[in-house]
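Hi there,

I know you've been waiting on this one. I reran it after we fixed the sequence typo, so this is the corrected version. Both the input and the resulting structure follow.
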Amino acid sequence: MRKTALLVENLSVKMGNKPILEDVSFEVKEGEFWGIIGPNGGGKTTLLRAILGIVKPSKGRVEIFGNHPEKAVAEGLVGYLPQRIEGMVPFTARDFVELVGGDGNKFLKLVGMSEKADTPFEKLSGGERQRVMFAAVLSRKPKLLLLDEPHTGVDIIAQDSFYSILKELKEKGITILMVSHDVGVIVNFVDKIACLNKKLKYTGNPRGALDCKLLEELYGTKMEVFVHHPECEGCHIYRRS
């Protein structure tokens, strides 16, 4: 039986008197790949920050491989890729990765950025910066990866490459929790999915997240989802009848 990598139990978070997360509970086993979907403002980023211990819950608890978040982060068990990095970064791509703690050439090659190793970070495109940041995160060799909309600014070809990397990491036993807006794509790759809008609306089989009534409740509007199947050309359209 696989060990529990991440336990979130009755987690609630408030900002002032405003509830951001309410009674969120789920358990991720070691080596699983989970997706998190939901509307903007639904608490997805807050959930990741609570798992990291950056945001303190008003109720509930988080454990990472049996440790409190602060200890797990301090011991390098967790890698976090935010949506973007703020401020000036006066380093080349290679220097940025090596500053974080790894072999710049090795991990830039892994994410397809070796040819940009000597490029100043500030001169990279948004998608290129994301890949360099991802290389830096991987250089720490975490056991749990938290990814917050890692496709921001990344083209379709790079997205396919990115999912291939995640598949390889999963096969090595790394646990992955990824926030995404690409509902019709992510369902093809994750083991389980969580639908979040302050409360968890659904967890389980990824295909279950394509239910139109569920998506309407989650997003508060009628939904039309384009579902990409990697084994065939083109897309299928899932509509409410």
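Quick highlight: The chain is about 30% helix and 30% strand.

Best,
R. S.
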